[in-house]
User: What shape does this take?
Amino acid sequence: MILQRLAPLVLLAGSVLASSAGAAMTRDQYRSEMDRAQGSYRAAWSGCKPLQGNAKDVCQAEARGAYAVAKAELEVRRKATPKNDDKVKTRRAETALRVASEKCDDLRGNARAVCRKEAKASFVGARSDVRVDRAAVDQGVNSRALTSERKEAREDTSQAQFTAAKERCDALSGSDKAACLSDARKKYGKL
Assistant: This one.
């Protein structure tokens, strides 16, 4: 069942990667690849129809995400620019966030909140990596701008991870909760 759902997505990723070698695409090649990506998206989406509840939502989020990533990868192949490369990385991170958020919907209470905060922390980390990579390319490896961007990225990621850790501590009570919060503050430098 899972393999049937994932087969169109694997085919889509394979077709994009297999044809990524070589020079820039012609307009006809681009249209052909876009049609193929749309066909794979429709096949993945129709594979979600028999599913029920949150499993269907997760499947649809995966299909949408694979399509968004495929489109971004096609743009890189059509016109290879650093901005388009960043778009691919960002789309992958956004897709992972959406899928993880949908999977969190199966949970209840604090477990759901923790799951969402952890998904958000992963997204913030991935987005920060894209910003740091961009600064390294634009400003140079030893630049002040890169140093500043790295520091800001570390702070953003640390804050998101601290928020997730605080949420995990909320499931506890009394001295266990106080100890958990104290440990989280120490770990993430929030003293």
In short: The CA atoms of residues 3 and 10 lie 10 Å apart.
